[in-house]
TrEMBL record:
<comment type="similarity">
    <text>Belongs to the acylphosphatase family.</text>
</comment>
<dbReference type="InterPro" id="IPR017968">
    <property type="entry name" value="Acylphosphatase_CS"/>
</dbReference>
<dbReference type="InterPro" id="IPR036046">
    <property type="entry name" value="Acylphosphatase-like_dom_sf"/>
</dbReference>
<dbReference type="Pfam" id="PF00708">
    <property type="entry name" value="Acylphosphatase"/>
</dbReference>
<dbReference type="InterPro" id="IPR020456">
    <property type="entry name" value="Acylphosphatase"/>
</dbReference>
<feature type="active site">
    <location>
        <position position="26"/>
    </location>
</feature>
<feature type="active site">
    <location>
        <position position="44"/>
    </location>
</feature>
<dbReference type="InterPro" id="IPR001792">
    <property type="entry name" value="Acylphosphatase-like_dom"/>
</dbReference>
<dbReference type="GO" id="GO:0003998">
    <property type="term" value="F:acylphosphatase activity"/>
</dbReference>
<keyword id="KW-0378">Hydrolase</keyword>
<feature type="domain" description="Acylphosphatase-like">
    <location>
        <begin position="11"/>
        <end position="101"/>
    </location>
</feature>
<protein>
    <recommendedName>
        <fullName>Acylphosphatase</fullName>
        <ecNumber>3.6.1.7</ecNumber>
    </recommendedName>
</protein>
Amino acid sequence: MSMAEGDTLISVDYEIFGKVQGVFFRKYTQAEGKKLGLVGWVQNTDQGTVQGRLQGPTSKVRHMQEWLETKGSPKSHIDRASFHNEKVIVKLDYADFQIVK
């Protein structure tokens, strides 16, 4: 991946499956997103998954995708991560990374 490509802003939606509710997954996701300088949101679903959207430079989003797939919060157990609706964007749609209730 070239440097310029790594700086391209992208938006991607995600859904995380496994033991991801009641284990501070959203809090850790928000903290990791902020640490990487990403914006977007995260929320629990009625299906027991966690979903949200990531926006930021491609290289940082890729890092966050890997974190969501492999790490998560200390007490979580991730079965799989699904990413969809990936697209290049001109500007960020959010000011920060929020937990949606």
